[in-house]
Design a protein that fits this description.
mainly beta; Porin; 16-stranded antiparallel β-barrel; 2 helices; about 5% helix
Length: about 450
């Protein structure tokens, strides 16, 4: 009996340490689970880019309901409101440029020697999700969920399933996850025909209406409790997208191959329209991604080091590396600080172009979207959290993001582009306040 008691105590200690590392709490006794046991995790987040670019205010609520026998229901709600300006893909020019708005109903002008922005950026997104998890036999767990997200020009419907099994006295867990989403896009003015020319105000003859895409994701996972202080996790992810993968609001400039300046457009008498020749972007209608993820969480007498690395590669020739490190440092029994560092780097897509040479045959695909370019990004932040006497917790997080891109020399056309700002570098601030409550 004493041997059994000692074994149970050691297992409980390891479970508690693992739960601490994973950012969760240990399973509560059955008696407590039989009672109403809702937990809520709420967060209000502000994201603001420099130079009056994109601003985002979002509210997120996660509700967990624990039932007997380790069954868990989770419900989430997210509401985002985005405003501001965003780069449209047109190249910087030595003269002002005029563009037809996405709706085709008006024009906007960008000043000379400035990266053209769309300052009509406005969107509100509402997302809800539900997930159910329960044991399946003694060593298995199964989970399934659905998600819905709606924007004024975008509708997402998704479903997911996950199966996990414990081995090695529950110190090893393997998992299989499958997710599928079907998205409908209804851009303002209708989706433009890829690589078609931007037209005059009121002319929507190059629009092809609503579009759709499907995404399938598969995740294989392995987690291992190495000892009472260290937990490791390895994941492989496969993602396949099919359908309309363009950003309907992004364009590419046609330029003089000698000077690199945008080609002026002959205006239609009496009708407002673009000042230069612009084409709507074109991306492949398929994308396959492979991701490899590794994470280590190490518990050190109340302190927790959480370090992860992700490598992603796809058939668009984008390769990315992500390093993410968090360190939870207790100040008292009820409060902590958590510094955060994240580094991200990626190569450009094989069809990324800052502009296209006028008179040359058009490629099958081309996009000047800076998010498909070659860039590095660093996030530095600090989080403070405090547990109240009631058992609830509040926290605040402040982070700074900076992204710096570069354009390969072979993508700069003509004599003038090399001396101008081509890639729209980005600085942003992130501030979040969270409150967790309920038992």
């Amino acid at each position: 009996m004493m041997k059994g008691k000692k074994s149970h105590s050691a297992a409980a200690s390891i479970a508690a340490a693992a739960c601490t590392l994973l950012g969760t709490t240990a399973t509560t006794p059955v008696q407590a689970q039989e009672e109403n046991n809702w937990e809520f995790d709420t967060a209000l987040l502000y994201y603001g880019e420099s130079d009056d670019r994109v601003q985002d205010l979002s509210l997120n609520v996660l509700a967990l309901r624990n039932f007997v026998d380790d069954r868990v229901l989770s419900l989430s709600l997210g509401v985002d409101t985005l405003t501001g300006a965003t780069p449209i893909g047109a190249i910087t020019a030595s003269v002002p440029q005029t563009f037809t708005s996405p709706s085709g109903a008006a024009v906007a002008t960008s000043p000379a020697n400035a990266i053209p922005l769309d300052d009509t950026f406005l969107d509100t997104r509402v997302a809800v999700a539900a997930n159910w998890q329960q044991p399946w036999g003694r060593l298995n767990k199964v989970a399934a969920g659905i998600s819905v997200s709606d924007e004024y020009d975008y509708l997402h419907l998704g479903a997911n399933f996950k199966l996990s099994r414990d081995f090695n006295q529950r110190n090893t867990t393997v998992s299989f996850g499958l997710a599928f989403s079907s998205d409908e896009l209804d851009p303002v003015g209708g989706a433009p025909t890829p690589l078609s020319t931007m037209l005059d105000v009121g002319d929507l003859s190059n629009r092809i209406g609503e579009q759709s895409k499907d995404v399938t994701d598969i995740v294989l996972g392995l987690s291992q409790v190495v000892n009472r202080n260290l937990v490791l996790q390895l994941n492989y992810s496969f993602s396949s997208s099919d359908g309309y993968l363009n950003d309907p609001y992004k364009i590419v400039s046609l330029v003089d191959p000698v000077t690199g300046e945008p080609i002026s457009r002959i205006p239609t008498p009496g009708i407002a329209g673009p000042s230069h020749e612009y084409l709507f972007e074109s991306r492949p209608d398929e994308r396959t991604k492979h991701s490899f993820f590794g994470q280590a969480k190490y518990y050190m007498s109340g302190r927790v080091l959480d370090a992860s690395y992700r490598y992603m590669t796809d058939d668009w020739e984008i390769d990315s590396h992500t390093i993410d490190i968090r360190y939870r440092w207790p100040l008292t029994n009820a409060s902590y600080l958590e510094p955060h560092f994240r580094f991200y780097t990626q190569t450009e897509a094989d069809f990324y172009r800052t502009s296209l040479a006028s008179g040359s045959p058009l490629p099958l695909n081309a996009s000047a979207d800076y998010r498909l370019g070659n860039f590095d990004a660093i996030t530095l932040g600090l989080k403070y959290g405090k547990k109240l006497e009631s058992g609830n917790e509040w926290n605040a997080r402040l982070e700074f993001y900076t992204g710096d891109g570069s354009v390969p020399g072979n993508l700069l056309l003509g004599s003038n582009q090399s001396g101008r700002e081509i890639y729209p570098d980005l600085d942003a601030i992130i501030f979040q306040i969270g409150y967790r409550f309920g038992r």
